[in-house]
Amino acid sequence: MRYRFLLLPILFFTCFVSFGQKVAVWLTDPSQNILFQQQADLSFIKAAGNPNITVDPKQSFQTIDGFGFTLNGGSAQHLLNMGAAQRKALLEELFGTKGNQIGTSYLRLSIGASDLNDSVFSYNDLPNGETDVAMQKFDLGQDKKDIIPVLKEILSINPKIKLMGSPWSPPTWMKTNNDTRGGSLKPEYYAAYALYLVKYVTEMQKQGIAIDAITVQNEPLHPGNNPSLLMLAKDQAEFVKKHLGPAFKKAKLKTKIIIYDHNADKPEYPISILDDAEAKQYIDGSAFHLYGGKIEALSKVHEAHPDKNIYFTEQWVGGPGNIKTDFPFHVEHLIIGATRNWAKTVLEWNLAANSKYEPFTDRGGCTSCLGAVTIDGNEVKRNPAYYIIAQAAKFARPGAVRIASNSSKELPNVVFRNTDGKLAMVVINRSKEQKNFTVGYNDKTVQVSLNSNAAATLVW
Question: Which of 167, 285, 310, 326 shows the smallest number of beta carbons within 10 Å?
Fold first, then answer.
C-alpha cells in the first residue's frame, strides 16, 4: 500500500503547489514496516480553519546539544571486529548526515568499565593494600585498545560530535567494600577521586578527544550493577563542592559537571544538591534516565533551578526488541517528552551488541541489552533505538533551539529551529486509529496523515 500523507483532492493541491513552501517528510510506520524512509514532499497552503498543531517560532526554549547513544567498550569491540571497509560504511551511516545517514551527534562514554564490557576495570587498579592518591599509575588502559581507536574514526566523520563521560565505579581501593560492585566512596579518597576524573579528561585530551561533560556517577542509587557505586545526594554534594569542582577549576578544565544521572522518580536528589550554593557554582546541570518516574519530573528540576541545564542520558531497549511497541514509547516519552521537558540531549543505551547481547560483566551486567545495531562479524541489523534516534538526530542538529508548539495526548510533538533557520518537527500519532491533522505555521497549514503509532519528521 502506498503511504499517503496528502488528504486534499489532487486538483485542489495543485492550485497551491507552486506557491507553497515545501515540507520534507521522513516516516517511520512500524505497522507498515516503513522504517525511516523519506516520503514525497508536502506543501504549505494558505491557512483554512484552525490547525490541530500550531508552531509558534516567537517562543523559544533550550538549545539542543545532540541525540545519540552510549559507546561502551563492548560496542567498540564489535565495531573493531568488522572489516575496515564495512566498519567505515557503518560509522558513516551512523554519524554522517548525507542521504540515508542518521546524523548521530552525541555519545556517552563510560569512565572505566560499564556493565557492558567483557571485564571490569578502572584506570588505576592496584594490588590489595596499595593506594595511589597522586594518580601516578593512572592509565587509560583498555580504552586505548577499543574506545579510543573507534572514537578517532568517528571524529574523522564528525569532528564536532560532543562526548560525555560517566563513571560506573571508582577504583576498588577507594571504596568501602573494596569491590567493583556497590559500596561507597571513602571520604578520605574524595580528593584522589576528583584527581582521577581530572586525569581522565586531560589524558583523553592528549589523545585528541575532548570530553564536553562528565556526570559524577552513573545511577548513584543503584549499587547492583557490576561495576556500580552508591552515592547519596549529600555525599555527591560534598564531593562536588569540596573536591571535584575545585579540582576542575584548578586544572582549568572547560568540561561540564553534571549531577545525578539516574531515574526521574527522584527529582529531589538533584534539587537538593543545586540548593547548596557552594556546590551549585560548579554544576552545569542534571541528567536523567526513565526506568522510574515520569518524564515531567525533569521540568520540576528546571523550575527549581532554571539557570541549570537538563540532560537525558540513558534508556535501554530490552532484547529481542519490538519496533511496534519500543519505537512509539521512546519517541513519545524521550525524543518528544524529554525535550519538551528541557532536555538538551536524548541518548539511548547502547550503540552495539551482538545477537547474544554480549559482552556483559558477571555479577550484575545487563544480559539482554539490545544495541541500536546488532553486529555479528560484518553482518549488521538495525534495531528500534537506531530508528528512534534517527527520527530526530538527522534533522535537529546541535545548536538547534526548541520552539513552541501545542501538543496533545493523541499527537505529541516537538519542534526545533536549526542554526540555518530550518525547522524540524517530530510528531507521532498515539491514538488507536489513523489520524488526519493539520500543522499551522505563519498563517499557512500543511495537511498530514499518520497511522497509529507512526511518527514523521517534517522539515521546512
Answer: 326
C-alpha cell at 364: 550484575
Residue 404 CA to residue 91 CA, distance in Å, equals 33
**pLDDT value for 20:** 76
CA distance 346 to 300: 18
For the record, the C-alpha cell of 348 comes out as 539511548
> Is this model's pTM higher than 0.90 or not?
yes
Across 158-172, average pLDDT: 98
Residue 429 and residue 41: Cα distance in Å, rounded? Answer: 19
3 confidence band (pLDDT: 50, 70, 90): very low
pLDDT digits over 193-237, tens only?
999 999 999 999 999 999 999 999 999 999 999 999 999 999 999
DSSP string of 416-431, one letter each residue: EE-TTS-EEEEEE--S
CA dist 321 and 325 (Å) reads 9
Residue 256: CB atoms within 10 A of its CB come to: 20
The single residue listed with the C-alpha cell 499551522 is 440
d(CA 386, CA 410): 24
* Amino acid found at 456: A
Residue 428 and residue 416: Cα distance in Å, rounded? 15
Check the CA dihedral 259-262-263-269 and report its sign.
Answer: negative
8 pLDDT above the threshold of 50: no
